[in-house]
Design brief:
By secondary structure, the protein is an alpha+beta fold. About 40% of the residues lie in helices and about 15% in strands. It has helices spanning about 45, 50-65, 95-100, 105-125, 175-180, 185-205, 215-225, 235-245, 255-260, 260-265, 285-295, 295-305, 310-325; strands spanning about 10-20, 25-30, 35-45, 70-75, 80-85, 140, 145-150. It binds the ligand O=C(Nc1ccc2c(c1)CCNCC2)c1ccc(-c2cn[nH]c2)cc1OCc1ccccc1.
Length: about 350
């Protein structure tokens, strides 16, 4: 097992919890708070032409701070590796959750879909389109709430979300008709289509458009014709129909979704898309860190405000998480010879 010298003393590494194409995800403990984190480790050599995706993902995640987006705590870049220290999401992928239950009941799908709308409403307001929305990119945290991941294909159109994009990307079964037709498209509109596929998958347990041959799959998407199984309520069918509009201009918008009757049913409150995290720094966390590092509160506040995504950023963020979870706002003092 590699020692990863860069992490020694800062994080205590545990088992590998997932390894995908060019990344490995390991469970770890942040040494000063003992909070659990996930560390995504990528070898630059193995990345090849995917290297730009990592820079895109890191830049986006540094800007995005929201209750339904996986938090990035720290970035370590060495000559041949990236380490992304990320929020711990121990309940795995939404994809596996749906498969395990075959399909979700409408009220459970509603709670998850509201969280997806909240996350997408926030990133669109921040000027980002995700462009790869699918159940594999939605993880469940310790409270079984959704956290959006994988911003490697996201776009922040220069000049704002009204400007068009061109790159065809994302997963074919979730791709909007205008995106696969090679025409210019609006990132926000393409994300709304993918959310329609996602909602269908939540409620049905399979995809509305599917074919093992990509050209046939694309034809089905462009017809916009899909089956609606008998167990779907009228409300579900109507909302899916408003999302899976082949003509992007007729497709429902994120703002219309926030207080849509289907999303409001039994809850009667619109979806809250604003981040619950406040901009100003937390006094208790700053004080504890100032004491630990032997600095004044003002010096500590200045250092944390720089948001360098170094160990200080991670320590502040995880200390704040501890406070939010009602755990003591305390840092563990240096153990001699700690593992
Ligand atoms: O914390 C993460 N995953 C994770 C942590 C603990 C456990 C599990 C999963 C499920 C498997 N049983 C052991 C418990 C975790 C956090 C962030 C990211 C991440 C954020 N941007 N990119 C990746 C990825 C993560 O994982 C990937 C994964 C591993 C196994 C299956 C499902 C998902």
């Amino acid at each position: 097992m590699s020692s990863y010298a860069e992490l020694k003393g800062y994080y205590h590494l545990r088992e590998t919890i997932g390894s995908g194409g060019f990344a490995k995800v390991k469970l770890a403990y942040h040494a000063l708070t003992a909070e659990k984190v996930a560390i995504k480790i990528m070898d630059k050599k193995g990345l090849g032409e995917d290297l730009p995706r990592v820079y895109t993902e890191i830049a986006a995640m540094k800007e995005l701070c929201h209750q339904h987006i996986c938090k990035l705590y720290q970035v370590i870049e060495t000559e041949d590796r990236f380490f992304m220290i990320l929020e711990y999401c121990p309940e795995g992928e939404l994809f596996d959750y749906i498969v395990a239950k075959d399909r979700l009941a409408e009220d459970e799908a509603r709670l998850f879909f509201r969280q997806i709308v909240s996350a997408v409403g926030y990133i669109h307001n921040m000027g980002y389109a995700h462009r790869d929305l699918k159940p594999e990119n939605l993880l469940l945290d310790e409270e079984q709430n959704l956290r959006l991941i994988d911003f490697g294909l996201c776009a922040k159109p220069r000049g704002g979300m009204e400007n068009h994009l061109l790159t065809c990307c994302g997963s074919p079964a979730y791709a909007a008709p205008e995106l696969i037709s090679g025409k210019e498209y609006l990132g926000a509109e393409a994300d709304l289509w993918s959310m329609g596929i996602l909602l269908y998958a939540l409620l049905c347990g399979y995809l509305p458009f599917d074919d093992e041959k990509i050209p046939q799959l694309y034809k089905k998407i462009q017809t916009g014709k899909y089956e609606t199984p008998a167990w779907l309520s009228e409300g579900s069918k109507q909302l899916i129909g408003q999302l899976l509009q082949v003509d992007a201009k007729r497709r429902i918008t994120i703002n219309e979704l926030l207080n849509h009757p289907w999303l409001m049913k039994d809850l009667n409150v619109p979806v809250e898309w604003h981040s619950k995290y406040k901009r100003q720094l937390d006094e208790d966390c700053i004080t504890e860190m100032a004491v630990h590092y032997g600095k004044t509160k003002q010096e500590m506040e200045t250092l944390i405000s720089e948001r360098k995504f170094d160990y200080l950023t991670a320590t502040y963020s995880l200390l704040l998480e501890k406070k939010i979870k009602g755990r003591p706002v305390r840092l563990l003092h240096k153990q001699n010879g700690s593992s």
